[in-house]
Fold:
Amino acid sequence: MSIEEIKREREKWFSWKNIKPLREMLESLKIESGELSFQDGAVSLSQKATDEVIELAKALKPWRKGPFKIGDMFIDSEWQSQIKYSIIEPHLDIEGGVVGDIGCNNGYYMFRMLEKRPKEIIGFDPSPLYRTQFDFINKFIQSDIQYELLGVEHIESYGVEFDTLLCLGVLYHRSDPVATLKSLRAGLKKGGTLILDTFYIEGDGDYALVPDGKYSKIPNIYFVPTVSALHNWSKKAKFSAFEVIGEFPTTVDEQRKTEWIDGESLGEFLDPKDSSKTVEGYPAPRRIYVKLSR
Structure:
């Protein structure tokens, strides 16, 4: 099946019973022109948050990435994504370039990158809910950002060579991390850059944690490598350079439960008697940020 055929098939996902009412609410929403700014890390929109806007924003929960501000309404997302953006932003030399965000969620990082004036931004995420959150925010912004209901496995055949790719919080969800890195490399122009963020464990050896069942209550975590093992994966994928730009534990300052999500968050994922461990007894989540070059 061609990329265009896959895209047409996935557009049908908007007719799912949990998504269709949200799309209908979005289509009927009337938005006045306004201004975009970035206040204290929030994607801030000057338009008034009408009753209809507030109703749809709440119906679109859970808001995992953000925050967003529409008039007086503050969408306090689970993740304080401005923390991660502040880590990768100094390494985003994207003015005039073609940028892809793999696993883009609701587009928070893509909206933040608009002020760097790239030529084109394309997001990939096979979630009709997150796409609808993106369309909701973009209805205020009216940007030219493209959002595809596609995954990392479609990068090679997508038909665009990217100057820069972001892949944030995706690699540990893939059962073959080296193949995933190869796909990302294939999507880059020669000399292109991949900004990667993933879980890692501390240690000097070339090995990875393979969780039995869940990790931090997340069911689809396949491998959590040491830094050395991650470097080896990048070499097997034929990246020419590997630069660590940050290593940090995940804290409740960055990820926590708010009224804009349903269910639990990091505070419930950690051992209540020892926050250095997950509830399953594994080392608590730590993230590494690396810059890879083709």
The chain has one domain: 3-293. Residues 128-141 form the longest helix (14 residues). The chain has a mean pLDDT of 97. Residues 182 and 237 are 5 Å apart (CA to CA).
